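Thread title: Can someone regenerate the structure for this chain?

I was given the following input by a collaborator and told the matching structure tokens would be attached. They weren't. Posting the sequence so someone can regenerate them.
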Amino acid sequence: MNVAWQLWLQLFRRMPVLAVLANLLRAAALYCAVQWLLGDDEFGVLAASLFGVATWMWHTGQGYNLRGVCAAESFLLPNFRRRLLEYCVIDLVMWVLLPLVVAAMGGVPHLPLLACGLLLIAATGVMMGSNPRSGAFIWPVFVVLGWMPSFVADFFKEALRSPLTPWLLLAIVALLLRFSIAPLLRIEDRQADASPLESTSLSRMQTRGAPGEPRRMGAFGKRINALYEQLAERAMRRALAAYQRSPGFQRRMLLVRRLLLPNDNPEAIGLRIVLVSMLVCFYFIAIMHRQHFNPVVVGAYAIMLSISRYPQLNVGMVRMRPNMADLYLTLAPETRAEYQRTISEALLVLAPISLLTALVYTMLGAWLVHAPDPWHMLFVAAIVSLAASLAALALHLIGPEGTTGRTIVNLVVVFGTMAVYWGGYWLVGTLGYALGGGLLALLALGFGLGVWFAAQREYVSRAPRFDAPIG
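Best answer:
Regenerated them for you:
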């Protein structure tokens, strides 16, 4: 019983906000259920809704918790799998059996169907928490169902009357648990860590909840990751060969960039743009049946995508500190300021890369939504994305290293960028490309360049740090 208690506490230690919120919703559902049992029928639907949301949240956290608990070393513990099974039984009693008892006391019909529904919600939450990639498979189902609301309503009415529906739901639950838990119980060799500045967008859903938790990728993710590694290796070999033929400052800087930013070579950038464009196309095709929205928002989304990697720069540079000592010794700078300036100038290439991606995504979005004035969007997006990239690079280069401070900086950058984009779009539309665009470029680029030069001056004045980050 002590093992089950410790596993239960793990969720409160790792995700306290979610655990407390889920239990508060369950308490609210219990209050509504009591009122329903006392004769107030209006509280019945509310109790069911609150408990369904609480169940999904709790088991999403449990799935996330399993990602850290099911490390390879944990299987050396005595009876580890049996303890997990015991904890699962306790969880089912708390979140499935007890609600069924309350429903039976109130005379709710279709109890087997209700039990299977609760199991389905719990299994979906476990899958989404233990395998974040599953969201890419679940949400399209709801999008497709949203195309046919009348058909879905008729289907559910027929499903309630069918005796095979509970068995179908149980089969779906078994498949979801097989898809989510089986990979966690499989003991595999740990994959080598990727570069903290890889920027492939594959690791955004591979969040780590605890140090040492293995990276888990599906077959598609592994293939794409291997392709990125091949492109990075090829780009590094080309840079080395060019430097050996003709050593110089520019080719030396290119080598530093290939080392710090392995997946920011032209081929990898093209692959990243293609993958994101495929997802964007699917999204727009999926929502085309819905009511139209303002096409101008496409440019805002494109800029948000282009600057979304800069928080990773802050985290990655901290994680890379011990490895940067080798780079320092290899470069052998005459002064510490020279080394700091080399690193900052190497990272400056992220600004034109962000500009390129913002323009490509804006053009794609404008084409998909048939924007009436795409050149207006492209013009404003070009100015704002370059200014926002310089400001984001500057702030995350010298900004706070803690999670809270980094989050605040990122929110300031994102909301500030959106405000400048909408203001710049109005300004160009009111005053024209020459006057409005010139004023926008003067203000936005002036601010971005000023922040970047100030941040670079601050970064160069700092002493290099090669200590490993705490935790």
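The chain has 18 helices and no strands.
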